[in-house]
Design a protein that fits this description.
three-stranded mixed sheet, globular, two-stranded antiparallel ribbon, disordered N terminus
Length: about 260
């Protein structure tokens, strides 16, 4: 009986998963372009420097060996970010703020629940992951990870490269970058992330006359356009890639990106 219930719950979870739409939350579409102040992401950079490890096409996080002191550093970073009202800053500063906050919260969620096999195991009984749980309060508003990605980042910036920037702590996800995002390095880092992912097997796997793309290109097809537009995007970062006429399959590995 327990096995049957577990199987039904697993089936429900996978079938219930659907990528949220990009829907602007107007409250956050405000900026002060005259503000030349920068937001420090030093504590987040310290965390990345110590615990992010490259193995082949993956960057893995060493969740198991983070020290109490370094976890306090991460917590300090999150406290600093909660005290900031990003609307007081330039849009370029805001973008880095939201991406780094999203990624830091995701790491914190895994640390708080470690050891686990997959982030999809978190959340409520009928939830597929923690993305709809309120995880932070910014400028008086309680936010979920889905709010940050789909109601702020995607609709305000309309940049498909955002999908290479936010990390869901899974092997199938574009890599967590070793550098914290800043207003200055944003475009360079986004292109680096896109290049790495599109030239990896988890991004595009070509075998014989078949091609397997990351499910990201299926879930968020609206951000990449039709198939011709998608391949134009992909060829920008993988020039030898040719337009494909056959069937395309999609895959995604939800296993934890652990060291």
């Amino acid at each position: 009986m327990k096995t049957l219930i577990s199987s039904l719950l697993l089936l429900f979870s996978f079938n219930a998963f659907a990528a949220p739409k990009s829907e602007l939350w107007d409250y956050w579409d405000v900026s002060n372009e005259k503000n030349a102040t920068t937001i420090s992401h030093q504590y987040w950079q310290q965390t990345l420097d110590k615990y992010l490890i490259t193995q082949g096409e993956y960057t893995l996080f060493d969740y198991a060996n983070i020290t109490d002191a370094d976890e306090r550093t991460l917590n300090s970073y999150l406290r600093q970010m909660r005290r900031i009202d990003p609307r007081d800053y330039k849009k370029s500063e805001q973008y880095a703020y939201w991406v780094n906050l999203y990624n830091a919260i995701t790491v914190k969620i895994i640390l708080d629940n470690y050891p686990i096999k997959s982030i999809t195991k978190l959340g409520g009984l009928f939830s597929f992951g923690p993305w709809d749980e309120e995880v932070v309060v910014v400028a008086g508003k309680a936010l979920t990870l889905n709010d940050i990605e789909h109601r702020i980042l995607r609709p305000i910036w309309n940049d498909p490269r955002t999908h290479y920037a936010v990390n869901c702590a899974s092997l199938g996800c574009p890599n967590l970058q070793s550098k914290a995002f800043t207003a200055r390095n944003r475009d360079k880092l986004l292109d680096k992330a896109a290049t790495e992912f599109i030239n990896s097997e988890k991004g595009i796997l070509i075998t014989d006359n078949k091609i397997q793309l990351s499910s990201i290109y299926d879930w968020f097809a609206v951000d990449f356009g039709n198939q011709q537009q998608l391949f134009e995007h992909l060829k920008k970062y993988r020039p030898e890639l040719k337009s494909f006429k056959g069937d395309i399959s999609y895959d995604y590995n939800w296993k934890l990106n652990k060291q």
